[in-house]
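User: Can you model how coenzyme A sits in this protein?
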Amino acid sequence: MKTAIYPGSFDPVTFGHLDIIERASQVMDHLIVGVLNNNAKSPLFSVEERVKMLREVTAHLPNVEVQSFGGLLVDFAVQSNADVIVRGLRAITDFEYELQMSQTNRKIAPDVDTIFFTTNLKYAYLSSSIVKEVAMYGGSIDEFVPPVIAGYVRQKFEQKRELIK
Ligand code: COA
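Assistant: Here's the modeled complex, given as structure tokens:
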């Protein structure tokens, strides 16, 4: 049984992330989406909200589980009995960072390997920050995230606007 971890901040989950999740879930027996509990990025959504959103949009994938984690990714991988870490490569600009991260992770935990999926070209430009920026200025994010996530993002910015009124 092969278990993989797909880690990220997912603030919020996008179609690009979902594409990787769906493809990785087809080649793995069990895929754990690991949501980083990291305040360094000042997330828009709490880790609990991000986990809930991911569970909603992956509910159709029976071998996908969503969990939050803190600390080192490799520690989470070892605790979860994961064999591999899954990462997506969007463009050549991702490569240097991903190479360094996978080599560091392998140095710390030699039994945990990293495999890369090339992101669908349709979503190569996408990031969670772009989604938030477009939504913050009232633009449509329907091309970037599933409808249920677009609703949560809009709601979050409405709440923020109410707070500063
Ligand atoms: N489609 C759309 N967007 C994507 C994407 C895809 N396929 N792949 C990545 N992105 C986006 C992400 O949404 C993110 O956007 P943002 O910066 O606007 O939030 C951006 O690209 C960067 O993604 P990523 O590199 O996955 O960053 P992350 O913050 O989501 O995740 C961790 C980074 C969690 C994997 C990494 O910080 C980690 O492992 N942390 C734990 C601590 C640790 O072990 N550190 C040592 C590592 S050597």
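A couple of observations from the model: The beta strands are 3-8, 30-36, 64-69, 84-89, 113-118. DSSP finds six helices and five strands in the chain.
User: Helpful, thanks.
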